[in-house]
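Dear colleague,

Thank you for sharing your sequence with our group. We've completed the structure prediction you requested, and as agreed, I am returning the results in plain text so they can be pasted directly into your records. Please verify that the sequence below matches your submission; if there's any discrepancy, let me know and we will rerun it promptly.
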Amino acid sequence: MPKMRRKSDLPAKTCAACGLPFTWRKKWERDWENVKFCSDRCRSGKGKAG
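Please find the predicted structure tokens below.
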């Protein structure tokens, strides 16, 4: 079983749409290099303007 990590130890990026920081999620494990947005709302362009 993998060792538990603190959220502060996870990699982080800045959202291309809203400019807010977001951290790595398990569902993005295989595609982390290509993740640019923090949520579906930002990805669809309906999020708040940055």
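Summary note from our side: The beta strands are 12-14, 21-23.

Kind regards,
the structure core
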